[in-house]
Design a protein that fits this description.
With about 300 residues, this protein is an alpha/beta fold. The chain contains 11 helices and 12 strands. The protein has a single domain, classed as Alpha-Beta Barrel (TIM Barrel), CATH 3.20.20. About 35% of the residues lie in helices and about 15% in strands. The radius of gyration is 18 Å and the shape is globular.
């Protein structure tokens, strides 16, 4: 598998051709941004500086970020600010539900910041969001992307018992890089969260993802994919890490599209039912398509 080395700063002059894309047409972006502002809602699209934000907003979609807009951990790849968060806002679930109904979404993705300051890691708050969305738009599928809840099984159980249509928790990188990339997280703990959700979920699909280009070697990726499959995970996303700012980890490599295609084939061979593996893939990108069993390299926003 071939990687192309980055310049450590991800400057556009060194950006490979496959990471240059046309500016998204405006579409529904103004309306989506206006609605989010009116309802005082956070999205991972904006908080995490997702490169697909323009495309997703233009198509009338967004990935909601709940439990606040700051995180209690300082993962070095993530643009979400890390500091002491404010108390949970009990009106947030209703506001998310109103946005979902007004946007007419058929597949709703709700992610969350890590809240190590709370006894349940904000699991009950996530459940309240799921329940509010279901009440507002019963026909919509609800996908959650959660933290590791500090490994608390009771919190994992609380969320899975709310029966989201997809339970997602990302491993993000290979075990060797955890201390550098995800301080405060633990590889085995994250695998246990996914396994617990799958066991408890009674057929609910579980999903996870990795960012490539953080300094992992190609032969470190496939064992992680195997570990995910062994934990019962059936849906996989693989995308290129892009540096949010100079304060974050530099890009170690730009991973060629052929590598993503090769990894997608290997994941399918291991038994994953749905795989999205392309440089611009993110956890929620083309999530509806992936939940429907999207093909190798496929994705939805």
């Amino acid at each position: 598998m071939a990687y192309e080395h980055g310049d450590g700063a991800q400057g556009t002059a060194r950006m490979p051709s496959w990471l240059r894309r046309p500016i998204a047409t405006p579409g529904k972006a103004v309306a989506v941004e206006g609605l989010l502002g009116e309802l005082r809602l956070n999205t991972v699209c904006q908080s995490a500086k997702c490169p697909n934000r323009g495309e997703c907003y233009a198509s009338g979609t967004a990935t909601f970020l709940v439990a606040g807009d700051v995180c209690t951990r300082g993962c070095r790849f993530c643009a979400v600010e890390a500091r002491t968060p404010a108390p949970l806002d009990p009106s947030e679930p209703a506001r998310v539900a109103e946005a979902v109904a007004r946007m007419g979404l058929s597949h709703v993705v709700v992610t969350m910041v890590t809240r190590d300051d709370l006894a349940d890691g904000a699991a009950a708050h996530m459940v309240a969001v799921v329940e509010a969305v279901r009440a507002a738009l019963p026909e919509a599928a609800v996908e959650v992307l959660v933290s590791d809840f500090g490994g608390r099984e009771a919190s994992v159980d609380l969320v899975t018992d709310a029966r989201p249509d997809v339970f997602n928790h990302n491993l993000e990188t290979v075990p060797r890089l955890y201390a550098e990339v995800r301080p405060g997280a633990d590889y085995e703990r994250s695998l246990r969260v996914l396994a617990r959700a799958g066991e408890r979920g009674d057929g609910m699909p579980t999903k996870s993802g990795l960012m490539l280009g953080l300094g992992e070697t190609p032969d470190e990726v496939v064992p992680v994919v195997r570990d995910l499959r062994a934990a019962g995970v059936s849906m996989l996303t693989l995308g290129q890490y892009l540096r949010p700012s100079k304060d974050h980890l530099p890009v170690a490599e730009f991973v060629e599209p052929d590598v993503f295609r090769t990894l997608a084939r290997e994941a399918r061979a291991l038994g994953f039912s749905a795989v999205a593996a392309e440089p611009f893939v993110r956890s929620s990108y083309h999530a509806a398509e992936l939940a429907g069993g999207g093909a190798d390299g496929g994705s939805d926003g």
